[in-house]
Write a structure and sequence with these properties.
The complex is a heterodimer of chains A (327) and B (540). Chain A contains five helices and 18 strands. With 327 residues, chain A is of the alpha+beta class. In chain A, strands 8, 10, 11, 13, 16 and 18 form a six-stranded antiparallel beta sheet that branches. The longest helix of chain A has 30 residues. Chain B is mainly alpha-helical and 540 residues long. In chain B, the strands form two sheets. A five-stranded mixed beta sheet of chain B has the order 4-3-5-7-6. A two-stranded antiparallel sheet of chain B has the order 1-2. About 1% of the residues of chain B have low confidence. The chains are: A alpha+beta (327), B mainly alpha (540). The interface between A and B is large, with 48 and 65 residues.
């Protein structure tokens, strides 16, 4: 049913007049709302613009400031000169961060005053006492890049924790040089790795060498015994007239990657023909495994020490063995 | 010429010229050294097959045996440009000649990005989208090498663009059937470039199906369905035909060879890869890997724009679904969004090999660039309706300036590029990320090697292939008297390229050469990429 026509014609409703605003407060509030509570799309656009601007400005700052955070060739040469002047036998250089291995190209690898003495350069991830023995090292020179992105003070803290005195840091451009005097340096009586040439070796089918090889991704200088053949026999390394102290301290690990498996290798340590300890390398527990054998009761006189390396299958890349006798 | 075509052509020519000019500094990676020789072999096939059509199968077996684990189209184009620029004109060396084929693919990528960016967001979109892609340092690096990842990304984008045009009301000069045919042909070209294109039809199908579910949206202004099925039919028919036509290896023993080809990739070796200090060797790999690596390699401001673009596409889909945005084309949004996400998600799958930096999910990146460009243009329009170009330009400058700076800073070490969130190369090294890969950074120490190695020195090039060494020598970048050694044991000079999984080779060098002190090196922001060791007396 249709409605009857309105005889008065169409009616119009006028908008209500704006509220009185003599102070301008309502207008101000309207503008503030429009600014701070914009429509949602505009708010999102503003957020995106802010984020892009912040990221862009940060990117420019990062790239602009990066060169000033990294050492120059002159800085490296200055540190090299300092080390050449001040380092002495029993010293080692440690890098922080460990990746800063440009140092290998520039820093001295031997002591100018003692050309036969090496100045080892270590680039390891940890120097905690539980992780690294640092045999033969009395003092450590820490070369650090404090401004490099992502660098943590962890290595400096670990070194400080095992040191009795610290000198520095000396700021050399964008490099810091700090000397740490170790509290209880591990100074071996005898390094079997370094004296491999004096050993008589019986290794049918095995290869025995002194090498620096990768164990668990890190460099280890050790006696490498490799068993390439299908039915390997044990290798025997006999060291005559070895001075023994309170203990034998050693490490053992497979060379290279063993994630796809490797047969276990057993190391038997004998003194004058009697077994005093053993250690085992297994693929299930890869890494640089430490072991210690108490020799206090047989210390004093030089003795024959025999290392018997017994593989349970072929180990073509070999097993890495490091052994020292402690005073 | 209209503005749209003008912007697209300017980008294509610009990318080609810049890539050609900056290419000589880029070294030869392991895979490139193989593809360059394979391309030359394929080019010889076509020449000999035209002269002796009766021997075509025998010739295919001989010439396409090279690197038959990947199809032949892109490598064939590398071979063709090498034959033209190097052998015929004599303007370039063999590698640069091959790379002209790669530059063409990069130019195609820039062209399609500019066209689609223009279609989505007007002239600023056309100008911005290619910039957001090519100013990512790793993408800029990939625009140089005669390898397969940028070409397949390029063809993935072009196929998707043709598909979009075939389903869109704005078809231009081609009919629905024309764009559908183009979709099929381009998909075939993509399949004939690299196997990851097999996933593309699935993405297109998913986008088309999702786009046809409209929720409360009653209409879509710029979308007229009907082209989709034609494009799928074209892809189903023309795709395999183009693959077969451009890969003579499949011209006989077709099924066994296809089986071998796909089998190779289904059981691909897992190359070890550093990720947060851990050497990833075997699956399951972390799902986070491609997302994290993208976040740490795309310059942050560009990454933010891309994320904004993804959010915008998601928001538009939700709004259209709820019936609040009638002008939004749901199929377009799904097409962009799925293509921006799926290639990354595919690599995130824990059993898929994780290596090669960003290249395996690179097909997603042009779509992220498109979405980022549209987001920046939209932000400009919303924030300043009166002067949108000014705000968009300002945002573009803030997004692109640090990226351009980074490109200039890391070139030619593109595989070592990390963004400011990672802390650049030093920050990434501190985090224990992959520093670089596959041998191309060797190029940085060649001048030192040429200057200092004793005559006839035996060099262990480690990660670089013997093919790459021969190519450097042929192109005059390496002294011809230097010989290739098989390891540090028989070398006078050892070139260690930083790969954590091969670290034992560096330590073997120390043992063999009785020194741990390099004689030269290449560094990016102090991070060692390459270090050269020499026996006493082998370095003058």
């Amino acid at each position: 049913m249709s409605q009857p026509p309105d005889h008065h014609g169409p009616s119009y409703k006028l908008p209500s007049p704006p509220p009185p605003d003599p102070t301008g407060w309502f207008e101000l509030r309207r503008k503030a709302r429009a600014t701070f509570w914009p429509p949602l799309p505009v708010a999102w656009a503003g957020l995106l613009a802010l984020a892009v601007a912040a990221a862009g400005l940060h990117g420019l700052w990062f790239l602009g400031s990066l060169p000033a955070r990294l050492p120059s060739p002159t800085d490296w040469k200055a540190v090299a000169a300092l080390l050449a002047r001040d380092a002495r036998p029993g010293d080692a250089v440690v890098l922080s961060p460990a990746w800063a291995e440009r140092a290998r190209e520039i820093l001295p690898d031997r002591l100018p005053s003692w050309p036969d003495v090496a100045l080892p350069l270590l680039a390891l991830p940890s120097y905690a006492e539980a992780d690294e023995d640092l045999p033969g090292v009395n003092r450590i020179w820490l070369v650090s890049l404090p401004g490099a992105p992502g660098v943590s003070p962890r290595i400096a803290r670990q070194l400080a924790a095992r040191s009795e005195a610290t000198e520095g840091p000396l700021q050399v451009g964008r490099l810091d040089l700090t000397r740490y005097d170790l509290r209880s340096p591990l100074l071996p009586l005898h390094s079997f790795t370094d004296r491999l040439a004096s050993a008589s070796i019986r290794s049918p089918g095995a290869r025995v060498t002194r090498e620096t090889r990768e164990v668990d991704l890190l460099p280890r200088t050790c006696i490498v015994v490799s068993f390439p053949g299908p039915l390997p026999e044990p290798a025997t390394l006999a060291f005559p007239a070895v001075p023994l102290g309170r203990a034998l301290r050693g490490h053992l690990g497979f060379v290279g990657d063993v994630s796809s498996g490797a047969p276990p290798v057993s190391l038997r340590v004998k003194v004058d023909g009697l077994e005093v300890g053993r250690a085992e390398a297994t693929a299930a527990r890869p890494g640089w495994s430490a072991f210690q054998i108490d020799t206090a009761r047989i210390s004093g006189q030089p003795r024959q020490l025999t290392l018997e390396v017994v593989p349970s299958g072929p180990v073509p890349r070999g097993v890495c063995i490091d052994l020292v006798s402690l005073p | 010429m209209n503005l749209r075509i003008g912007i697209a052509l300017a980008w294509a020519v610009g990318v080609l010229l810049v890539a050609a000019a900056t290419s000589p500094a880029v070294g030869i990676s392991r895979d490139e050294s193989v593809y360059v020789e394979a391309g030359a072999s394929y080019a010889r096939f076509w020449g000999e097959a035209l002269r002796s059509p009766g021997r075509v199968l025998e010739l295919a077996d001989r010439h396409y045996a090279w690197n038959h684990e990947h199809p032949g189209l892109a490598k064939g184009i590398f071979g063709a440009t090498r034959a033209f620029f190097s052998s015929f004109l004599g303007w370039t060396g063999d590698v640069q000649g091959s790379r002209y084929g790669a530059f063409l693919f990069a130019a195609l990528l820039a062209l399609v990005l500019a066209l689609w960016g223009f279609d989505l967001a007007g002239p600023p979109g056309g100008a911005l989208a290619p910039a957001l892609f090519f100013l990512v340092p790793r993408h800029f690096h990939h625009a140089h090498a005669a390898v397969l990842d940028l070409p397949v990304s390029s063809l993935w984008l072009a196929t998707t663009y043709a598909f979009w045009r075939s389903t869109s009301a704005s078809r231009g000069r081609l009919s629905t059937a024309g764009w559908a045919m183009a979709t099929g042909l381009l998909l075939g070209a993509a399949l004939a470039t690299k196997h990851n294109a097999f996933f593309l039809p699935l993405v297109l199908l998913a986008a088309w199906l999702l786009g046809s579910i409209r929720g409360r949206q009653r209409e879509a202004a710029d979308h007229a369905e009907g082209g989709g099925p034609w494009a799928f039919a074209a892809m189903a028919v023309l795709g395999p035909l183009v693959l077969l036509a451009t890969w003579p290896w499949l011209w006989h023993h077709t099924l066994p060879r296809i089986r071998d080809w796909l089998g190779y990739h289904l059981h691909h070796e897992n190359y070890p890869w550093m990720y947060f200090g851990e050497l990833l060797r075997e699956p399951p790999f972390p799902v986070s890997y491609p997302f994290v690596i993208t976040a740490l390699t795309v310059p942050a401001a560009i990454g933010v724009a891309m994320l904004g673009g993804v959010a915008q596409a998601g928001g538009r889909i939700v709004a259209a679904w709820r019936g609040r945005a009638t002008s939004v084309s749901l199929p377009t949004e799904w097409l962009l969004l799925l293509n921006a996400i799926v290639p990354i998600v595919l690599i995130a799958w824990p059993t898929v090999p994780h290596f090669g930096g960003v290249k395996h999910w690179m097909p997603a990146m042009p779509f992220l660039a498109l979405l980022g460009a549209r987001a920046l243009v939209t932000a400009g329009r919303l924030l300043s309706p009166a002067r949108p170009a000014l705000v968009t330009s300002l945002l573009a400058a803030l997004a692109l300036a640090p990226a351009a700076w980074q490109v200039a800073r890391v070139h030619p070490f593109g595989t070592a590029a990390w963004n400011e969130i990672a802390g650049g190369a030093p920050g990434a090294a501190s985090m224990g990320m992959q520093r670089q890969f596959w041998g191309d950074d060797l190029v940085a120490v060649l001048p030192e090697l040429n200057a200092h190695a004793v005559p006839g020195a035996r060099i262990w090039f480690q990660e670089a292939t013997t093919l790459a060494v021969k190519q450097y020598q042929r192109d005059g970048k390496l002294r011809p008297d230097l010989l290739v050694a098989s390891g540090p044991e028989d070398a006078d000079v050892s070139i260690w390229q930083y790969h954590q999984e091969f670290r034992d080779r560096e330590f073997r060098t120390w043992t063999e050469f009785r020194t741990a002190r390099p004689v030269a090196g290449a560094y990016l922001d102090e991070v060692p990429l390459v270090q050269v060791y020499a026996r006493p007396g082998a370095w003058r």
